[in-house]
Amino acid sequence: MSRLPVLLLFLPLIGCSSEPAAPAASVPFTPQSTVGSGVTRTDLGQATFDIKKVKRITDKWHVELKAKDGLDIAVRTFTYDPGSFTGWHQHPGPVLIQVVKGTVTFYEADDPNCAPIVVDSGEAYLDLGEHGHIGRNETDQPAQDVTVLFGPPGIAPADFRIDMDAPGNCPF
């Protein structure tokens, strides 16, 4: 015997019926995040580094990296179709982005003027992870970047991106 007739009996109990729905109280819809379009992510690798401090000093330069309890580093590429965008988001830590093909334009959530940061092939964008941003391909040519993300040890790959509402400083 099919269970479908029995299940159909329960539909009115959970609010499903062929009758028009009763009017509900009007509640303004607030999106929980913005959705990207036309950007493809490829994960190249992710690893946990159990380092406390890395320091290198030469006569030409000085670099220092400290990470209490270690850190995870993920490397990804993003391919941008013409007219594509990432959606507004932020990251739990610093992100190094190098555009390797085309042009990607970044806008920062805390910039009241919504000034474009245009990054051409061979150039880089540094996100300290302190505010949100959006990446857009505003050209008619494809673009691609290589991204290095820093996060807490053991972070899930999906948690390197924190979706956010549009901040309202830009028209998109």
What does this 3D model show about the protein?
- By secondary structure, the chain is mainly beta.
- It has one domain: Jelly Rolls.
- It is 4% helix and 44% strand.
- The chain has one helix and twelve strands, in the order αββββββββββββ.
- The protein has one helix at residues 4-10; strands spanning 37-49, 53-57, 62-66, 71-85, 89-90, 95-101, 103-108, 117-120, 124-127, 133-136, 143-151, 162-163.
- The strands form four sheets. Strands 1-4-11-6-9 form a five-stranded antiparallel beta sheet, with no helix packed on it. Strands 8-7-10 form a three-stranded antiparallel beta sheet, with no helix packed on it.
- A hairpin with an 8-residue loop joins β7 (103-108) and β8.
- The protein starts with a helix and ends in a 9-residue tail after the last strand.
Brief sketch in words of this structure:
By secondary structure, the protein is mainly beta.
Number of domains: 1
Per DSSP, what share of the residues sits in E-state strands of 2 or more residues? 35-45%
| CATH topology value | Jelly Rolls
- Trace the largest sheet across and list its strands: 1-4-11-6-9
CATH superfamily: Jelly Rolls
Most strands sheet: 5 strands, antiparallel
How far apart, in Å, are the first and last alpha carbons? Answer: 53 Å
Assign the structural class, choosing from mainly alpha, mainly beta, alpha/beta, alpha+beta, or little secondary structure. Answer: mainly beta
